[in-house]
Amino acid sequence: MQQDILVNWSPQETRVAIVENGAVQELHVERTLERGLVGNVYLGKVARVLPGMQSAFIDIGLERAAFLHVADVWHRQPDGEPPGFVRNTLPQVPIEKQVFEGQALMVQVIKDPIGTKGARLSTQISIAGRLLVFLPQDDHIGVSQKIPAEQREALRSRLQALVGEPGGGFILRTNGEDACDAELAEDIAYLRKTWARIREAASRLPPMSLLHQDLSLLQRVLRDLVSEETQTIRIDSHEQFAHLQAFGREFMPAAAERLALYKGERPIFDLFSIDDEIAKALGRRVELKSGGYLIVDQTEALTTVDVNTGGFVGARNFDDTIFKTNLEAAQAIARQLRLRNLGGIIIVDFIDMGREDHREAVLAEFRKQLARDRTKTMAGGFSQLGLVEMTRKRTRESLAHMLCEPCGACQGKGTVKTARSVAYDILREILREARQFNPREYRVVASPKVIELFLDEESQHLAGLSDFIGKPISLQSESAMGQEQYDIVLL
Questions:
Q1: Residue 404 bridge partners (DSSP)
Q2: Which of 28, 140, 244, 435 could form a disulfide with 169 if both were Cys (CB 3.0 to 4.6 A apart)?
Q3: In this predicted model, what pLDDT tens digit does every residue of 83-142 receive, in sequence order?
């Protein structure tokens, strides 16, 4: 399998697409004003303790208080036991005996806010490096479970020798399996230095302060997304290419060698029609090559996927038609889960099949495709109603939740792009037009909400684009336009 990673960078937004064998499989989006919080370390303040729920609300300076469950309160482990030993085998100490209102507490975000739910926290701090994860409060030395069991003990002994005197625990990540001692020692030094900076900040900053921020999406591309199948990592920004190259040479030299600066005239995402794929991923209906189609409905509780034959009548008989449609759907559903980043409970309604061997073949193909997903998935068999129930771990908001918001015109029954998403579409369109035409001025005609965003929060980005293309950009508000509607007039 050939894999390429495309990075589209702008001051307001970073977009990363993973393309496998010419087809977009994953999309990652990070906005400057909306960066995820997972991995961030804060000095929080306990706002409220709820003994009935065995949890506490912690104020970390965000709009909504974050959530700390008793199971995520750190305890020192007995010598030689891995983290989690106490909480799983010994009686849990009630949370009201561990934290109190007004207490300053160092916490780390382990789950981003989703919908109306605040961020989820843990008091066990972990700092991820390139090869290792550092657990400053524990002395346990561990090895990733994904590494074969026969290699783990030798790797653990090597790591123990490099760590030396107790001063925090380390877990060897999967990509550290073949690392040399010098690389591991560098990562150990980097992680300990990072922890020292966090402790120093905690001693001088007031509660509700950010002590440590996780790596940006650009840096995580090198740390987390690059695999053995990755051929190239193409990025369309000279400045960010230089920054990423310097970061990669220091921490991920093998991945840095695959970096390439994209210099083409066409926008980088146009190479694989990625913007078109994004538009399709925001819709309910997904067309299959055979003529069948999927209907994907995402709700707060779960996601449902319905498979339909549509106009596919190419097989020799009805059973074969259903079987071929379900096989194609199994591949398409696994891809859509990754592309849309759908998580939680997922119910798949394949077309009913009368033959047991057909059901087994479809289920085997579905599980095979899910195995390629870097996010943990678990799929059961066919239920008595002919449904396949599965789960996919929620690690971040879905694509639809990130790019869209409930539509006031349809009272929440559908979605439209946010004003910021439309604003960024307009900025990209102006840049695209500037490469083809040479007008005296550009005039943006859009809905009042989009224009207001350009006049306020996005004014700096608009001015920066105007300076870059060397042309003035004027704004005109049109109340009759919907939020996704806009015109760019060349004057």
A1: 417
A2: 140
A3: 443 344 446 789 999 989 999 999 999 988 877 788 999 999 999 887 889 999 888 888
Q: How far apart are the first and last CA of the chain?
A: 48
Q: Name the DSSP letter for residue 354.
A: S
Tell me, yes or no, if the pTM score tops 0.85.
no
Q: Are the C-beta atoms of 380 and 388 separated by less than 8 Å?
A: yes
Domain chopping of the chain, boundaries: 3-35+216-273, 42-86+98-212, 282-389, 418-490
d(Cα 323, Cα 359) in Å, to the nearest integer? 8
Distance of alpha carbon 120 from alpha carbon 287, whole angstroms: 37
What's the pLDDT at 91?
Answer: 61
CA distances from 8 to 11, 30, 404, 411, 414 (A): 10, 11, 20, 34, 28
Quick one: 418-490 is in which CATH superfamily? Ribonuclease E, catalytic domain (3.40.1260.20)
Q: Say if residue 446's pLDDT is above 90.
A: yes
Question: Under 8 Å CB-to-CB from 134, ≥6 apart: which residues?
Answer: 126, 127, 128, 168, 169, 170, 188, 191, 192, 194, 195
Q: Using DSSP, how many helices (H) and how many strands (E) does the chain show?
A: 13, 26
Question: Which stretches within 83-180 are classed as H helix?
Answer: 85-89, 149-163
- The CATH homologous superfamily to which domain 42-86+98-212 belongs is Nucleic acid-binding proteins (2.40.50.140)
**29 neighbors 15 (Cβ within 8 angstroms):** yes
The CA distance from 7 to 299, in Å, is 30
> Strand order in 13-20's β-sheet?
23-31, 13-20, 3-10, 230-235, 259-261
Amino acid (1-letter code) at residue 20: E
pLDDT at 372 > cutoff 90: no
Q: How many CB atoms lie within 10 A of CB 168?
A: 18
CB-based contact 167:192 (threshold 8 Å): yes
- Express as a percent the part of the chain with pLDDT over 90: 44
Crossing angle, helix 448-455 and helix 419-434, to 10 degrees?
A: 70
